[in-house]
Amino acid sequence: MQYPTRWSMVLHFLRGSKRWFAAAIFSACVVSLLDLANPKIIGFTVDSVIDSGSASVPSWLSAFVKAAGGIGGIRRHLWLIAVLVAGVAAVRAVFRYFFEFFNTKGAEKLVKTMRDDLFGHILHLPYAWHSENATGDIIQRCTSDVDTVKTFLSDQLSALLRTLILMGLSLFFMFRIHVRLAAAAAVFIPVIVLYSLFFHSRIGAAFEKADEEEGRLSTIAQENLTGVRVVRAFGRELYECRRFEEQNRIYTGYWVHLMKVLSMFWTSGDLVSYLQTLVILVYGSYLAASGRITAGELIAFISYNELLNWPIRALGRTIAELSKTGISIDRLRYIMNAEVEQDAPDAVCPPMNRDIVFDHVSYAYENGQGEVLRDVSFRIRGGSVFGILGGTGSGKSTLMHLLDRLYDLPEGDGRILIGDTDISNIQTAYLRQHVGMVLQEPYLFSRTLSENIAITQKRVVLDEVRRAARTASLDDTIEHFTKGYDTYVGERGVTLSGGQKQRTAIAQMLIRQPEIMIFDDSLSAVDAETDAKIREALKKRTAGSTVILISHRISTLMHADSILVLDKGRVAAQGTHGELLEMNPIYRRIYQLQMQGAEEMQENSPEERQPEGQQSGNRQDPQENDPEECQPEGQQSGSRQDPQGRETVSGKARTEQNGEEARR
Ligand SMILES: Nc1ncnc2c1ncn2[C@@H]1O[C@H](COP(=O)(O)OP(=O)(O)OP(=O)(O)O)[C@@H](O)[C@H]1O
């Protein structure tokens, strides 16, 4: 839904709170009418005491005066007037209470609707939108700007109506008392409105800058709080403090500027208002002294002028607040007008255990430095284990983000198919439900371990959680925690190590057993032994699923059915480990470097100094350590089913066979 104007969005937000605000406005009107009654009562009383002949009884008071025995009765029993004034004040207090009650109800309902709408909308915005917008700024819009809009609608809107009523009726009574005196008072109204309008745009511009800078300040605070580990680890406290102080200085500067503009606005308002009171006092006293109005009328007139004065000032305030609110509404409209992810009307839910095809895919991030993927084409067999190897920044994760539709492939830049279906025609929720991704830096919520593992489930079933944790080699670790699966992991999983977080994320994915599982360098933080153990356990749990492994380690990928080598966004080669060793110099070189590195590490380890035959991790070739290596194909435990349900050789076995060929 799009909001072409500010009002269209405000009306949408007001949907649940309109009746509360209507009741509040009604109460405010009653209060205003009662405010206008007292000057009349006091004016009449003064005149009847000083000179009963000049006292004119207001029509709505005539019944009361008659019951009190006429003007003479009022003069003898002045306490009756006191009772009347107290009565009016009591009714006013009741309606004032109603006003506060209804207004607060409306305001709280409004703010709840706004926050719910914003949060729901933000969660449905594309991932690309989130990468382009700073989290701190979004939070600032959802808190500070929401508050500005709420304050305006709850305080200023009812005040505006009250103002108009008070102004209209005050002027009406004032003109009835003395036309010229009333005209002298009214002449100041356009002056105040004009200078308010003059300040309107200036206040708006100053507030916009201050608000933007507040957003930047929030972003710095939010980044530093979430990245506190990095800040500490790199001793960046002082640098970050300076950065915050600098931004705080800029923000304070803009805020001080805004306050200056507002002070000028208020001071000039005060000046005009005092000037008007002075004119009324001088001219009114002259009229009273010359007998053209009575003393009671002068008192009533001055009281009405007070009532008029306040709303005029309030009108100026409302105009000033309007400028700020307009900016805040625009900032919220920026969020609410951003397009949420939407499926094509004919989007489908096809079987997902089919071949995945990248067909001439090219991609450049909107805010990036040119093409990240260039004409990439390859096929991942459904139900197979597929490895992707490539240097940092070669586009491996981008491929997976495109497959999960975190970023959409623009038209004409190739296609990604699952089976025969272009993923742009697959329902997004369905696609993501069936594509599980474990990231290198997984995000955990500040909940318990079991809740994190079962995050995609409606309720936590501990047996399933334990099974997934066992496969991810996490159960032993968890058993050592005092609270076991009920251990609270802190914000972003801060109480866990990198490897523990990665394994929690693996368990998180295993529990829902998606048909396509992506491990994006997700074992980088665990040691080689645990890596091998997890991969072994995963083989059983991932059978039937298409598994995509992304890694810099060839030892992680070498058992895959097929490996893609990506180089600077282009496909450099594809094949099994054996084929690549034989045919691809880049792959061979990486393999040799990694093997050499592993051997050097072993030489430097204390174990290495033992006699050869006693070495526990004696490595000649990674494949030679595997007991499955020499088994005939049909007996290999890692056998899996292809999408059509046929038993196939496990990726690992096939790769090892190819590795064997390569060695030959
Ligand atoms: N959201 C983004 N906006 C702009 N550019 C991006 C974004 N994400 C990644 N890039 C750029 O795209 C390129 C490929 O990034 P990608 O994360 O796909 O590489 P990778 O092969 O997975 O790297 P690594 O192995 O280091 O994780 C990099 O140059 C990176 O700077």
Automatic annotation (TrEMBL):
Entry-linked SMART domains: AAA (SM00382)
Membrane-crossing residue ranges in chain numbering: 78-99, 181-199
GO cellular component, one term: plasma membrane
ABC transporter domain ranges (all copies): 356-593
Compositionally biased region (Basic and acidic residues): 653-664
Single Gene Ontology MF annotation: ATP hydrolysis activity
Disordered: annotated span: 597-664
Topology class, membrane: Multi-pass membrane protein
Record-linked Gene3D superfamilies: ABC transporter type 1, transmembrane domain, P-loop containing nucleotide triphosphate hydrolases
Keyword Transmembrane helix assigned: yes
Keywords: ATP-binding, Cell membrane, Membrane, Nucleotide-binding, Transmembrane, Transmembrane helix, Transport
Pfam families referenced in this protein's UniProt entry, alphabetically: ABC_membrane, ABC_tran
The name this protein goes by in its record: ABC transporter ATP-binding protein
Organism encoding this protein: Porcincola intestinalis
Higher taxonomy: Bacteria, Bacillati, Bacillota, Clostridia, Lachnospirales
